[in-house]
Amino acid sequence: MKNKEKTKPTKKKVLMYYLILAACLLVIAAVTLGVVFGLKASNMSNPTLDVPNEDDPNTDDEPPAEDTSSKYEFITPVKDVVLRHAHNFDYNETMDYYRMHRGMDFTATEGTEVLACVDGVITEIITNNDLYGAIIKVSHANDIETVYKFVVPSPNLKVGSTVNRGDTIATVAKATGVEVAEGDHLHLEVYEKGKSVDPDTFLKIIAK
To answer: Is pLDDT at 96 greater than 80 in this prediction?
Structure first.
């Protein structure tokens, strides 16, 4: 009995074991916290640089947006719009045959003001064409050209003159030439990069 009592650990020894175990746990916890906070401090001192992605469409190096201000929007060449012929295949009353009508005809009495559809520069003025009477050609931005036929050019209009949208460039002439049977009217054509296009592409007056 005495030998067994000698090998039994005393309360002091048990308490000592618990104290050592607790000390070890505290050391492990301290080391772990030190590593965690050390990594955070390292990341803060060396922040990741936000390098623009060349493939990102939202980078600051994007070219400026195309100017879509109102000065590039077409207006009708006459104030009171009465469309007689659209840009399509139809019958020519004067010549008595069907043909492709490359333009738009606006019914208007002789003397009606003809307006520049959009800002541009006068490139040609013809006053003695047997088929179309007088012709005015105006060059615009984006390789667009407008052509006004069966008109009387304004006296002060010259080749090279700059015109603004809505400026009076002519008046409607008395019916003549290849569309005389239609009566007095303005014939408007539009060209884009030298190719005839439907003026309503820009005017947007015909319900689709």
So the answer is: no
